[in-house]
Input
Amino acid sequence: MEIQGVASVLPVDDMKAAVAAWSGLLGIEPTFIDGDGWAQFDVGGKRIALAGTDRTSDKAGVMVKVDDLAAARERAIAQGLAAGPVQLGAHELRCTVTGPGGWPIVLYAPKPK
Output
């Protein structure tokens, strides 16, 4: 299993206001917006994601892009972490792992073509 990226995920209730605030703070526009569900900013080689209606938790967490979602999920389980089922998201396959402190770790991979 290879990790292809890591990003912070921040839950937001008002996507429009959150995008405006982060755009002003970072001085850039988002690289991707999906309505009220999702927005992301790529800055300095890192990603900050805003999760609106398409969120897996109301807690801030991280998302980890992997090349083999099944292997990543099994690795988390082998470490004693609780891992939910693989689900189809709007743009990816994902599963949520409960990390230390109860923080969500969303493992994800692109949808198969």
